[in-house]
Amino acid sequence: MEQGAGYEFVDAIKGGVIPQSFIPAVQKGVKEAMEKGVLAGFPVVDVKVTLYDGSFHEVDSSEAAFKIAGSLAFQEGAKKADLVLLEPLMKVEVIVPDKFLGDVTGDLSSKRAKIERMGERSNLKVVDAFVPLAEMFGYATKLRSMTEGRGTFTMEFDHYEEVPRHIAEQIVSGKKA
Q1: For the whole model, what pTM was predicted?
Q2: Less packed terminus of the chain by CB within 10 Å, N or C?
Q3: Comparing C-alpha atoms, which of 39, 131, 130, 46 is closest to residue 85?
């Protein structure tokens, strides 16, 4: 589903092929599979799941069996879908003296930043950018060393965005990104 839409479970069972009492177990199995994830172990979000068929046996059917069936069905379907990894993008504002602007913007660009605007505040330069959170670890120390201790920054979560495919492949394969 669209990003941010959440999770939706649709019971489309017709003719009682699965007793109503077992449908919550299927839903629970799906939710557990979503939480465990199918792509590098990360949770799955923004999914619509439709239960449209199944079978029931008087003796062999149990709540646990339907929970496992829901989990396995979700995993199988998710593997066929075109799943993507999402990463948090932070809204970052960096304030530096004019003479350090080039170094700071160059460093931000190396961190996959999208520089939105550059402006001035008093006699300082202000850079507004969106930067993946994974790239921001250790930034306070790096900014201090680049600006002789005179640069500052603020950072807050803004939104999630798809991880570039080459980095996602490294994450999924377990190699360091």
Answers
A1: 0.73
A2: N
A3: 39
